[in-house]
Amino acid sequence: MHVLKLIALGALLAPGAALAGAQAEEPLSASVEASLQKAVSDRAVPHLALAADPDARRWMGAMSQRLAQRMPDETLRLDFLRTVRYEATRAGLDPELVLGLIQVESAFRKYAISTAGARGFMQVMPFWVTAIGNVDHNLFHLRTNLRYGCTILRHYLDIERGNLYRALGRYNGSLGQPEYPTLVLRAWGNWQLPAMRNVDFSVAARPSPLTP
Could you give the C-alpha distances from 73 to 43, 93, 157, in angstroms and in order? Predict the structure, then answer.
């Protein structure tokens, strides 16, 4: 049984594989709803600010090489990575964690739709648009999808008091089941730069710095 589980995990981490789930719709307090509405307000990624950051440039170069096979168009790939880094950092998340989650959720397919109706790179459920966004928000739009996805994961981390394992379970709609969090954590490790793999890069320790 253990061997079969390892085979299944390996198959899901292979290129093109995905394990999309569905966030559960839950009532939000007025304060949480207002905070999330503010968090998803749409603004463009500041390209010039990222271009001026040498660490960001090195990260972009390393991640671009790794992602080239899955996303061959360089212009689209760099725009994707730029947006991942900005939105993840904005939400107090490790950008490589977000890459690992996207790998598991959609296998980097922009127009992926799960059987439950979750959409886009980060497989966001449409009810979130009604709950905290507006009708003009298109979940297949790169920046919109990543803004929602990172905001939702941050929200679940806050609910779970920084417990990433449980927050990932909530994100996938599989709270209490080990398969999905295990897959994302393994994928996260694969995306981390070698110098960071032995570092305790806990998102649980980070504050929630969401701003529009």
Answer: 24, 26, 33
Q: In this structure, is residue 13 part of a structural domain?
A: no
Entry pTM: 0.78
3-state secondary structure of 5: helix
Instruction: With respect to residue 7, please indicate whether it lies within any of the assigned structural domains.
Output: no
- CATH code of 61's domain: 1.10.530.10
Structural domain including 72 reads: 46-204
Look up residue 181 and give its amino acid. Answer: P
Q: Give the model's pLDDT for residue 55.
A: 87
Residue 157 placed within a domain: yes
Residue 10, token pair as written in the block: 């390996």
pLDDT in tens, 143-162: 999 999 999 999 999 999 99
Q: What's the pLDDT tens digit per position in 149-208?
A: 999 999 999 999 999 999 999 999 999 999 999 999 999 999 998 765 544 445 444 555
Tokens 């507006």 locate to: 134
Indicate whether 151 belongs to any domain: yes
